[in-house]
Amino acid sequence: MEKIIVADDELKIRKLVCGFLEKSGYEVLEAEDGDEAYRLFCENKSDINLLILDIMMPGLNGWEVCRKIREISSKSRNCSKTEAAILCSLDYCADRIRSQRKVKSLEGKIAQTEAAMDELIAENEALKEELEALKNNH
User: Fold this and answer.
1) pLDDT tens-digit profile of 67-82?
2) 57: nearest Cα among 19, 87, 98
3) Average per-residue pLDDT in the chain?
4) What DSSP character marks residue 32?
5) Residues 6+ apart with CB under 8 A from 44
6) Can you say whether the dihedral through the CA atoms of 9, 59, 50, 87 is positive or negative?
7) Vertex 24, ends 22 and 28: CA angle to 5°?
8) Neighbours of 113 (CB within 10 A)
């Protein structure tokens, strides 16, 4: 039976994922944070086939867990080749997308403002030249 570690600090998500995997015939180890996921991996490293990790967790985040596991896996002959899936919460991803859209929107507004400023400067220069020409003709 394949063994999977599921790490997520949100209990509801963790239970949902674990329940689905267990019903599908997998043995599942649960971790409520990255530190526990890393500890479980170290205790079971030759038996773990997959890690499903949340990105944002207390202690070690999902990326840090992967990095640490890669370090020990590369040094150990007893480690199976373990796959890792990094998951982010929908709220986190949506916030990132909204933030990126806001930045793009602000960049567009800044570019429009800069273009308008350039136009005003050019018009001001043209008016100065016209005024100077009028002064010279009188």
Assistant:
1) 888 887 766 655 555 5
2) 87
3) 79
4) S
5) 3, 5, 29
6) positive
7) 30
8) 10
Neighbouring residues of 27: CB distance < 8 A, sequence distance ≥ 6: 1, 2, 3, 4
| CA 47 – CA 38 distance, rounded (Å) | 14
Which spans in 26-89 are helix H?
A: 34-44, 62-75
Q: Taking the complete model, does pTM exceed 0.90, yes or no?
A: no
State whether residue 2 is helix, strand or coil: coil
Residue appearing with tokens 């971790």 = 31
Q: Which long-range contacts (CB under 8 A, 24 or more apart) does 19-25 make?
A: 25/1
- 118: tokens are 């350039």
Retrieve residue 46's tokens.
């030759």
Question: In whole angstroms, what is the distance from residue 51 CA to residue 3 CA?
Answer: 9
Q: Say which residue the tokens 């040094």 belong to.
A: 75
Longest dimension (CA), the chain: 99
